[in-house]
Amino acid sequence: MSALLKLQNIHKAFADVRVLEDVSLSLAAGEVVSLLGPSGCGKSTLLRIAAGLDQDYQGGLELNPLLNFGRGSGIGVVFQEPRLMPWLSVAQNVGFADGWVADDQWVEQLLRDVGLHGRGDALPKHLSGGQAQRVAIARALYGKPQVLLLDEPFSAVDAFTRMKLQDLVVELAARYEIAVLLVTHDLDEAFYLSDRVLILGGTPSRLQRELAVPLTRPRDRRSAELAYLRGEALTELYQSHVL
Amino acid sequence: MGALNLVIGRWAERLPGWRPALSDLRGWVVPLLILALLETLVRSGVLPAHQMPAPSQVAQTLYLLAQSGELWRHLNASLLRVGAGFAIGAALAIVIGTWVGLSRRAEAYLEPTFQALRAIPSLAWVPLLLLWLGIDETPKIVLIALGAFFPVYLALLAGIRNIDRKLVEVGRLYGLSSLALVRRILLPAALPSLFTGLRGALSLSWMFLVAAELIAATRGLGYLLSDGRETSRPDLVIAAILLLALLGKLSDSLLKAWETRALRWRDSYQGGEDGA
Ligand SMILES: Nc1ncnc2c1ncn2[C@@H]1O[C@H](COP(=O)(O)OP(=O)(O)OP(=O)(O)O)[C@@H](O)[C@H]1O
Ligand SMILES: [Mg+2]
What we know:
Subcellular location (chain B): Cell membrane
Low-confidence stretches of chain B: none
Distance between the termini of chain B: 21 Å
Helix content of chain A: 25-40%
Structural class of chain A: alpha/beta
Low-confidence stretches of chain A: none
Mean pLDDT of chain B: 87
Strand order of the largest sheet of chain A: 5-6-7-3-8-9
Helix content of chain B: over 70%
CATH architecture of chain B: Orthogonal Bundle
Shape of chain B: globular
Shape of chain A: globular
Number of strands of chain A: 9
Protein name (chain B): ABC transporter permease
Pfam family, one (chain B): BPD_transp_1
Mean pLDDT of chain A: 89
Bound molecules: adenosine-5'-triphosphate, magnesium ion
Strand content of chain B: under 5%
CATH topology of chain B: MetI-like fold
Organism (chain B): Pseudomonas sediminis
Membrane topology (chain B): Multi-pass membrane protein
Radius of gyration of chain B: 23 Å
Distance between the termini of chain A: 33 Å
Order of helices and strands of chain B: HHHHHHHHHHHH
CATH superfamily of chain B: MetI-like
Structural class of chain B: mainly alpha
Number of helices of chain B: 12
Oligomer: heterodimer
Largest sheet of chain B: none
CATH class of chain B: Mainly Alpha
């Protein structure tokens, strides 16, 4: 199957500072791929390019024509912060793409999916950080995307909420058959969630490694296989001086 | 003061639904005391009645004005002027402010001019407006609009420039056109500043109304002021001042109520009851 989203030989510089050099990656349908790397290595930058928010780069961004079916762009984005419109209710935020003519039933369904059933009329100021992030996830899912781009969506919540949100995203991605590109700097998260883990690093950043996680779902965080794969990866990364 | 507070507090506890209304009564204490003091001072002859009329006499003047129908004529004239001037000035400011806020190019062309115009104290326009536009309604409304324009324009511009870039990016993500971006993100996000500007503009509108009516008018509260001075009737002057205060406060309260409703979503510090 051809890729849904393909980044080819991306070079990106801010003024004279080169941030990304020759980064290529592709995302196939239904696949979960993690992008891992130290702070400031350009993960968010790469994701913004993939989302079409940054046009000022060299290289190619190829979107599968399949993405243009259905409503919206076929790509949902969850940022590092919830970025909800504070003047809109939770439900209005979820249906933001359609404004006044949002599909209320679908909004309702999504709120149920993210565990916020009945909170549609609340204002963002009445939500906790984790709830706000769940609203942001529901908003990203509203356009029935085939690709979900997540930029460290769980970094601002506590460990328990994070685990719940991780499971939520995996489950929703599976249910709605969405391919996920997840930016993270958490090795556990990357291995638990993804089929492939891409390691970004160096100055300017290049793709250092691609690690496969050949485990079936649902996965168990405590499973020995997961721990083993993670341990192997860590060893390899240390030995090759990537970390 | 403490005792009174306590008494009002007790009433309030018995009538839970009335609690906010009753605690607002605290604001009446000082004005009522001042009125009572004035009344005694004037009646006992400490203050000369031809300079400082007793509150009761002012009330009587107001009553007579209302009965003869004069009052409504003046109120009507003033309200129409302020309403028209404020609406025109604020609407222009919203349109131009949004445009300048959105476009660096518009800002480069227009900002220096507005800066220069703003440096002119608005009352300095009065003679020119009278020369150009005569002494009927137009110059008054233009003057008020001029006064209302700048507070709204400046506040809105600052509001738009302070909008979180990250929210605008969400709009771009959903492919909003620039008009939709203005309507759905920029204006709502700048609404708190806009309301601050509108309220400033409203109080300036009343000020400019008085200026305009003092100079050339045959109706209106400003005319009542100058008429009272010319006929040596301080009660008339004070009645007009009271009416101006009342209308100013009333219109500001309306705007404030609207602001509170429109900005319910805001997550900001509301102040504590006993101070921090
Ligand atoms: N608008 C910008 N102008 C100039 N430099 C920028 C800009 N945005 C990002 N950078 C630089 O690009 C580099 C990569 O930034 P980016 O936000 O992509 O990092 P990141 O990998 O997402 O980091 P983190 O894990 O902390 O979120 C950083 O060194 C940053 O200083
Ligand atoms: Mg980042």
